[in-house]
Amino acid sequence: GTFLLAVPWVFMGPAVLERLGLGWIWPRLHWPLGFALLTWLVWRAYVTLPKHTDEPPRLLLAAGAVLGTGLWALVTVGFRLYLANFDRFTSLYGVVTGIIVLMVWLHSSAFSVLLGAEVASTLIDRLDSSEEGSTEADEATDS
Predict the structure, then answer these.
(1) How much is the pTM?
(2) Where does the pLDDT of residue 79 fall: very low under 50, low under 70, confident under 90, or very high at 90 and above?
């Protein structure tokens, strides 16, 4: 539900805000809105896609989603800076350069999202092991 409401704002936001006389807000709003929407989508994927035996701690999954999205944003900014100097490489290697850059960006993006998932999984495993350790310690002191 939230996704269906948020996505149209990404595309229609500038026109709607301009009609309301608030067009100056969009340049300040579109990056945080895009980051929040992407973080929510990655978090939703972390909650929904893997098979969880128990209900996963959503806050820890959110930490992984923020990390994964932040890394993805850094990778994207890095590639944007690289593409600013892209014309030098295009004249040397031709069309192949664009394909290679796209493949490297896709690989780096996937790695960023998977790294966020791995961090979330590690945090959940550590939480589970600390809860098991405290339960075993409580049982040992009771007997």
Answers:
(1) 0.73
(2) confident
Cβ atoms 76, 42 nearer than 8 A: no
Query: How many Å apart are CA 124 and CA 50, to the nearest integer?
Result: 13
String of DSSP letters for the chain: -HHHHHHHHHHHHHHHHHHTT-GGGHHHHHHHHHHHHHHHHHHHHHHHSS--SS---HHHHHHHHHHHHHHHHHHHHHHHHHHHTHHHHHHHHTHHHHHHHHHHHHHHHHHHHHHHHHHHHHHHHHHHHHHHHHHHHHHHHH-
Cα(115)–Cα(67) distance, integer angstroms: 8
Least Cα distance to 66 among 117, 141, 127 occurs for: 117
What letter represents residue 137's amino acid? A
Q: Which residues contact 14 (CB under 8 A, 6 or more apart)?
A: 23, 26, 30
Could you tell me the pLDDT band of residue 135, with boundaries at 50, 70 and 90?
A: low
